[in-house]
Write a structure and sequence with these properties.
The protein starts with a helix and ends in a 7-residue tail after the last helix. The chain has one domain: TIM Barrel. The chain is 33% helix and 15% strand. Helix 2 packs parallel to helix 7 and helix 6 runs parallel beside helix 7. The longest helix has 26 residues. The chain is globular, with a radius of gyration of 19 Å. It has eight helices and 14 strands.
């Protein structure tokens, strides 16, 4: 029944919800009819370790991290084949080659995280970094990824490295004080700068939107929200930040055939072109290998075939275009 209703809502243009704008040229560069961005929430084991969805979340987080490590090289090869850039919203700890405990504490530069209830995960531990192996990327590849980040940066496709906090924290104002948020992002920026990367695009873990003014102060230009699948246009906040509402997730859904998966994502692009809209796809690289191996190649091939109609770009490049004064007049 759930699968049937999903297909019905899609057929009726209810999901994703389509927003229209008469002055679409404020958001769509000429001569294109639509814009596509793709964001990967690049997390390895950091995201699901306190998840409410699994009976043993730590075990599951390690399994997902291993799947992600297997998927990323294949993803990069596909992106190179079709020249598709991705914005990799990266957990900052993945930049590290190794780390250690000092006086029994990991990452003492990060303030303690207090216990809280979250929409997708809760934290009632004594130490937010209790599962950090304080090892290295050879011995504990689920927690570090300098090798994968190097592959991303050396790809033929011009990917962007974005920020997903240092340790996948809940960023809501009511549970994340400014000093914690700032310390996490400063640590991300410090580690990224060591390899020549300037972080500009931000994704709140678990859609826990908060601390937006601090984002601006730290030099970020955008964040993403997921309040419902939207095919529409970015929102410019008073503090200068651009909000990009997410359109649809790349994910393998049980009950759908491979053919229907491919049809659905192609159709979303067709609707973006027809309605002169911005389409913000997103995914977790730990997604089912069926999607990576059977669905994604056909989707990226289709994207490539629409290049005369669609601008395919990173979040940073798109926001840079939005911020040009002549495009806002």
């Amino acid at each position: 029944m759930k699968s049937f209703l999903s297909k019905l809502n899609f057929a009726l243009n209810r999901n994703p919800r389509i927003l229209r704008c008469d002055d679409f040229r404020k958001y769509i560069p000429a001569p294109f009819s639509a814009v596509i961005t793709i964001t990967a929430d690049f997390e390895l084991a950091w995201a699901p370790r306190y998840s409410k969805s699994f009976s043993n979340p730590l075990k599951r987080s390690l399994e997902l991290a291993r799947t992600e490590r297997n998927n990323v090289p294949k993803l990069l090869s596909l992106c190179d084949k079709y020249d598709i850039p991705i914005t990799w919203a990266t957990v900052g700890h993945l930049f590290l080659k190794d780390c250690k405990r000092l006086d029994g504490k990991a990452h003492i530069e990060i303030p303690s995280v207090k216990n809280y209830n979250g929409p997708y995960w809760n934290f009632y531990g004594k130490d937010w970094f209790e599962y950090d192996p304080c090892s290295n990327f050879i011995d504990s590849p689920e927690w570090y990824a300098p090798d994968l980040i190097e592959k991303i940066l050396n790809s033929e496709a011009k990917h962007e490295i974005g920020c997903h906090t240092f340790s996948h924290i809940d960023c809501r104002d009511e549970v994340c004080p400014l000093d914690l948020f700032k310390a996490e992002l400063i640590e991300c920026k410090k580690e990224a700068s060591k390899i020549g990367v300037e972080l500009k695009s931000f994704v709140h873990p678990g859609h826990t939107i908060g601390n937006l003014d601090e984002l601006v102060e730290l030099g970020f230009t955008s964040f993403q929200s997921d309040r419902g699948n939207i095919l529409g246009y970015p929102i410019n906040h008073k503090n200068g930040l651009w909000e990009l509402e997410r359109t649809y997730e790349f994910v393998w859904r049980n009950g759908w055939t491979k053919e229907y998966h491919i049809y659905r994502y192609k159709k979303i692009i067709d609707r973006a072109i027809k309605n002169n809209a911005v389409c913000n796809f997103w995914f977790h690289p730990s997604f089912d290998m069926n999607f990576n191996d059977e669905v994604l190649p056909e989707i990226l091939k289709y994207f490539n075939n629409q290049r005369d109609k669609v601008l395919i770009t990173t979040i940073r490049e798109y926001v840079s275009w939005l911020n040009k004064d002549e495009n806002r007049n």
